[in-house]
Amino acid sequence: MAHRPLTERLVLAYKDKHKRKKGRDQDGTPPANGLVEAWENSLPPVINALVERGLGQVEVFIEFGLPHTDADVDVLLAGVHPGSGAPSYVLIELKQQRSATVHPNRSVAVDLGFANWKLHPVRQVQKYCDYLVQYKAALRGKPESVVGAVLMHNTHDDDVRELFELPESEHGRLYTMDRFERFRKLLGARLAALPGGEAAQVLIDSPEYDPPKIADVNLPARMGPPERFQLLDEQELAHQDVHEAVRRVREGGTKEVIIVRGGPGSGKSAIALELRRTLDQAGWNVVHASGAKALTLTLRETYAQNAPRGMKGKLKKEATRLFTYFNQLKKLPPDSCDVVICDEAHRIRRHSVDRYTPREERENARPQADEIIEAARVPVFLLDDWQSLRPGEVGTAEYLIERAKALGLRHTLIDLGGMFRAQGSAYYRDWVLKLLSVGVHTPQVWVPDGRMQVHLADSPQEMTDFLEGHRLTGASTRVVAGFCWPWSDPDENGKLVPDVTIDDWQQPWNVKSGHAVEGAPDADFWATDPRGTGQVGCVYTAQTFEFDWVGVIIGPDLVWRDGRFVIDRTATHDPELRPRTIDEADINRCVRNAYHVLLTRGIMGVVIYATDEATRDALRGHVITSVQHPLPKKMRKIASP
């Protein structure tokens, strides 16, 4: 093939620079043979088109990484716009498949021959363009500087006719073999026959905006357009699936149950908030529900906090209706909501009964999941199978599918594969599961991956000193711990009691629920109020939230013995786990899941300290970096808001 040497040079450079997304070391390891073969097959059409148009000086990126996530663009071309002379970029997704099937009920769900449903490739590249424009400072406010293309270089129009039904845009068009001349013209229209090095460097050096916070996104529509989360890949698939399910039900279709499953940092809460925003804008009756008090109260607070004078009281009342708890949904009439969005659905309980429930209702209690499903025309559950924290919490994908089938309802399960925390390190997410032996996993050594920073501390003081250094540079930091110490009420002077005591180091827990302490936030706002620094958080106040840096104290309830972590149930102070009637399997699940949550709160890095000496020794064999000897890491440039 013509211009094959250029392709070979690119592939060789790719192999030289590539690092595996899982288990890579500082020197890098070669990519899998199948991946190299895919590039050898898919790159030549792009290179040929560039050279034939006289665009040999355009800069070509392979697997250009998107900010804050492990997602990347197959090919990004950087050059000069022939009209304006400004930097110009073309994002290309390459597809080798020869056919495609669009789901009959889901217009953005496509099977490209792998027997599973993925986001429509045109929507995929459209979202990649939107994402870069939102988070790269050099592109913010300049959507016209980016175009997107899907190149299916092995197929003809007739083989993928259904794919053309999705609306195209400047950020996403589909090109087959039949449209290859149009693809060449696109390149000529967007890129001049000039060196693209400067445009490439502009993009590489561009500062990055942080993703929006809850307070930026969770606003009433009438208060102006809020910030928004840019959803990618399976996130966008889930988002569109819910909208289409609502339309079908409104047009006379039957109730549908949608389950979205993903690990920590996969963007479940982003989907939930974006769904609430877009469904509300579309005029649907939507309720956000959770089993986590801290999350629900934070959403209520942020919804009304920026209201103009005279509106705050009304918005607070509205927020109480819009953001509720799982156990409150049983009070709603059947199908009274178009959509109920259940975030943190792993915390769904077997029943909604509590100590205030009348005896007759206790004896005839229905499954809480059934009550939720009954309340909405389209119930949506977002969950992680490994984040339930109490013995009575039963929210797994398998359980919810079982309940949908028992009620005779159709269900859709969407698995989220992306990673939007831990600097996009899916490898770190998987490493934590293996370290804790969650499910069928076994521990493995942490190999630094150039994304997430993982350090060990030899003492809690060393940990807090390290975190304080980052806090002083503007990073958000918190210390969290296993529930292995008593949690006292404030003392007679109204001060917090330093319950978390390790040798000569001590700090208080966050404020106990139902109490107020001057200078400290309420328990439910510990994670989002800067005054929470200096208090230790537990899993109930940390779940859902994230921090730039997190310190994790592994208490005596989780110790390393004979090559793996084991549970010591006698060391827990969690009142939900102390009764002897709770079986070992529940204790084991809840403690491991709690540390799974705690270890995955960090955006930039995590510092780990274990109170048990043998556990500290074992961890040194699994993590080579400490706060005293961290690996050098180039700091990410943060764009000013």
TrEMBL record:
Coiled-coil region: none
SUPFAM superfamilies cross-referenced by the UniProt entry: P-loop containing nucleoside triphosphate hydrolases (SSF52540)
InterPro entries: P-loop_NTPase, SLFN_3-like_DNA/RNA_helicase
Name this protein carries in UniProt: Schlafen group 3-like DNA/RNA helicase domain-containing protein
Highest taxon of the lineage: Bacteria
Boundaries of every Schlafen group 3-like DNA/RNA helicase domain copy: 255-612
Organism: Streptomyces dioscori
